């Protein structure tokens, strides 16, 4: 318990010191950048937004200083923690505000659609009951006696309405998964069909039964039964259009992330473009690895150095003849360009070597920590029940022994912004509670997982925009391309139709597999 309190006090002082250090570092960095901003090379429309409230395990500044540090940095260097920073322009701020306004409009449209559907559903269920009760209320004395036939029809109407109610609840009253930009065409057509159907029944009922005060009550009840039967058939039609039609795979879509080129293939049925986009996004959060912009900084820095190596300056002035020197500098720049693949090769090899080394250190540290946990559990079994340590306290006790190795590995693989200290402690306590192995604990950190594995405040993709040349309510077709955009990247979706397959049969005669082996009796001596 004392170890856990020491750990908490250490991290509290740790974050306090990091705030002052990071402020001084930011001021010094702004002083160095201020001369560049005067010549107009840096855009003036920029603002820095500090997010999120939960502190990551290591700040983003540590990943920028990765290349100039040795493997023993932890013994002589103090790690600086802090909130992550994302710089976006004022145009992005305006776009975000516009998206918020659009989301308010989508909420109003969604609630309006739900209200219309609820009112129409209530009208549908009350209409057969009203058809039966209105003659009993208005001209009860003039009605002809019905007897047992009507009572059987009453039971039939009651059970059919119960079946229709359960089916409607299972098909329509479900939690919406997304707000689509346009209405669902088949759902809207079904609502219009139901409205016209009920309106025509009410019109016929008003003209032929209410005005004339029909006394044949058995015919009136059978009229209500026919309405319920027709509603059941419409519900069956809704199941076919909304659920069964899209089950058979018809198209294959290729989804490519624009930043790193990661791609996946999915099979879809007959869907509209907006519903296909919804299916793609659902699979994206499950199948694609989480988007990590820190992994793209290395390639950008290499490209910047490559472009800087191709610059040629005439130091003798425009009036002097320096063609020979210029040709020599161009040749040197070409040689440097030709050797860039060697720099890339050795840079990737050195990075892989550092990752393997720190991965091995992390695995050893976690195994030793879990071995210590097993020793503590054996000791706790001999103590009184009131003195036993809960999983949270055990996680806080062993976390300092693996914290440095985990920090170094996450910083090397540039995953530090996705794992806060609190999330690591919760995961460690979860593994201890369920008696999981060190390999099960490390599975989350050794390989980047899908987006759903991380907290929502770590996601870079929450608000999406669908861009398509075709109408989003139109169906998928061969060659259709649409784009799903978010703030930092986009998903490019290319649709291909599954080709028609012609399968033929070839008959093989079973007797063709038979053969005769003839052996000669005479053998050579």
Automatic annotation (TrEMBL):
Pfam families: Strabismus. Coiled coil: none annotated. Its main location: membrane. It comes from the Eukaryota. Residues 19-35 have a biased composition (Basic residues). It is found in: Cell membrane. Residues 36-45 have a biased composition (Basic and acidic residues). It is a multi-pass membrane protein. Residues 74-86 have a biased composition (Polar residues). Keywords: Cell membrane, Membrane, Transmembrane, Transmembrane helix. Belongs to the Vang family. PANTHER family: VANG-LIKE PROTEIN (PTHR20886). This is VANG1 protein. It comes from Calcarius ornatus. The gene is Vangl1.
């Amino acid at each position: 318990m004392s170890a856990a309190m020491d750990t908490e006090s250490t991290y509290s002082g740790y974050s306090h010191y990091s705030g002052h250090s990071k402020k001084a570092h930011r001021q010094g960095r702004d002083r160095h950048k201020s001369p560049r901003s005067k010549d107009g090379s840096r855009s003036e429309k920029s603002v820095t937004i500090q997010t999120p409230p939960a502190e990551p395990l290591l700040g983003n500044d540590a990943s920028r200083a990765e290349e100039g540090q040795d493997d023993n940095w932890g013994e002589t260097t103090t790690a600086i923690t802090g909130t992550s920073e994302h710089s976006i322009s004022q145009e992005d701020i305006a776009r975000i505000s516009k998206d918020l306004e659009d989301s308010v409009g989508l909420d109003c449209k969604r609630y309006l659609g739900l209200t219309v559907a609820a009112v129409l559903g209530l009208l549908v269920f009350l209409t057969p009951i009203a058809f039966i009760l209105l003659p009993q209320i208005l001209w009860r004395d003039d009605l002809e006696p019905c007897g047992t036939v009507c009572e059987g029809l009453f039971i039939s109407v009651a059970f059919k309405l119960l079946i229709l109610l359960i089916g409607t609840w299972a098909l329509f009253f479900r939690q919406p998964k997304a707000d689509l930009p346009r209405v669902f065409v088949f759902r809207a057509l079904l609502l219009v069909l139901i409205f016209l159907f009920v309106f025509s029944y009410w019109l016929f009922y008003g003209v032929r039964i209410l005005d004339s005060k029909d006394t044949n009550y058995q015919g009136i009840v059978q009229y209500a039964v026919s309405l319920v039967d027709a509603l059941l058939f419409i519900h069956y039609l809704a199941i076919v259009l909304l659920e069964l039609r899209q089950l058979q795979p018809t198209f294959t879509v290729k989804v490519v992330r624009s930043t790193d080129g990661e791609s996946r293939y999915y099979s879809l049925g007959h869907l509209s473009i907006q519903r296909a986009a919804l299916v793609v996004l659902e699979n994206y959060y499950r199948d694609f690895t989480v988007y990590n912009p820190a992994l793209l900084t290395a390639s950008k820095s290499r490209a910047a150095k490559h472009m800087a190596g191709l610059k040629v300056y005439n130091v003798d002035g425009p009036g002097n003849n320096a063609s020979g020197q210029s040709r020599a500098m161009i040749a040197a720049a070409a040689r440097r360009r030709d050797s860039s693949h060697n720099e890339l090769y050795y840079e990737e090899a050195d990075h892989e070597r550092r990752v393997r080394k720190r991965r091995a250190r992390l695995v050893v540290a976690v195994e030793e920590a879990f071995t210590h946990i097993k020793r503590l559990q054996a000791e706790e079994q001999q103590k009184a029940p009131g003195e036993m340590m809960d999983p949270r306290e055990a996680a806080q006790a062993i976390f300092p022994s693996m914290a440095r190795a985990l920090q170094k590995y996450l910083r090397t693989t540039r995953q530090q912004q996705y794992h806060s200290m609190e999330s690591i402690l919760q995961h460690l306590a979860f593994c201890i509670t369920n008696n999981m192995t060190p390999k099960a604990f490390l599975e989350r950190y050794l390989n980047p997982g899908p987006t759903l594995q991380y907290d929502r405040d770590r996601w870079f993709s929450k608000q999406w925009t669908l861009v398509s040349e075709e109408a989003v309510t139109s169906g998928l077709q061969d060659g259709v391309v649409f784009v799903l955009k978010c703030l930092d990247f986009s998903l490019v979706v290319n649709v291909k139709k599954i080709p028609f397959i012609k399968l033929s049969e070839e008959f093989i005669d079973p007797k063709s597999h038979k053969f005769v082996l003839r052996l000669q009796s005479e053998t050579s001596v």
